[in-house]
What does this fold into?
Amino acid sequence: MSEGGRVGSGGSGGASSAEEPWPVRVVSQKVGAWIAKLGWVWVDGQVAQISRRPGASTVFLTLRDPSADLSLTVTTNRDVLDSGAPELREGARVVLHAKPEFYAARGTLSLRADEIRQVGLGELLARLEKLKKLLAAEGLFDRARKRRLPFLPGRIGLITGRASAAERDVLTNTRRRWPAVEFRTVNVAVQGPSAVPQIVDALKVLDADPSIDVIIIARGGGGIEDLLPFSDEALCRAVFGCRTPVVSAIGHETDAPLIDYVADVRASTPTDAAKRVVPDLTEEVRLIGQARHRLERAVRNLVDRETHRLDGLRSRPVLARPQVMVEHRATELAALRQRAGRCLEHRLAAAEDDLRHTLARLRALSPAATLDRGYAIVQRADGHVVRAAAEVGKGDPLRVRLADGELAATVDG
It folds into this structure.
């Protein structure tokens, strides 16, 4: 098959194979055809570079995504640029109507724009407000998830512009308050198309450093357009995902980029960030002195109070003359002994009387008492007491007991 036939089969949608591969030009043609199907689109981006060649009618732009490290080349007519955005500068936000084109000769993709609009301040604010509501609905501004800053961080991560006033303010004021504080500073672009990717990368580096206890993102004041990178969605989500507490110190008191709502602590200025991150050594020394003074006063009051209590205890008779207590107990013991003796004597006397009365009653009821009055007891030989004459017969031996002695007798009738 001829080369032209392969091109024709490729153009008709025939599949390529190892035996019948497509030439580079066919692949380029197919890529260009697929890209052309996209048609005209509206594109939002930030101007990273403008190239106006003298005498040329074509203007080249480099359009960058504010949230990612991506860019595309845009070509347009000078008249289109002058009519839509005559004072367009690098860093500006634009919306353009363009068609993607694939240049087969160079194998590059670009956009050909027929309309360019520079985004105005009102439209920017409307977009920021819409993004603010979206992030708030997702919980990125929730106060419950904000972390408290450490009382005294061992090392502070600082993200700011190189040799900027914000960097100088943070370092100077922080070290003035606590001279021993340590910093790890990462200098980044704080405005322009490369600001967001650099700040996000710096956040990842500092958040991964275990020695960093808190991260400060600082920038001086500026217009709304200058502070736009700090309202970028990708940066806000990166701050939200940090494990290390983040302090936002962007602009002045009146500036409020979206990163302020996501950060754990919002500082009105870089100087305010220094005051919030580390304590004032002079103030802490003063507070420690006051605490020591209060502690010493409390200890003295406690010692004085206990001394007075001990003096009161020592002045009591029981401690002033300890033998008084022994003497008192001895007196009580002697009284108890006397009372016990009297009780015992009374009980013995009562018992003796009871015994005497019992003995008298016993004697009164005893048979011996009856015998003493002249009576006798007659018993048979078997010891049976004879109570009737019929109980004995003639010739029966009897025993007669008297009060004093006994008699032997025989019944004779």
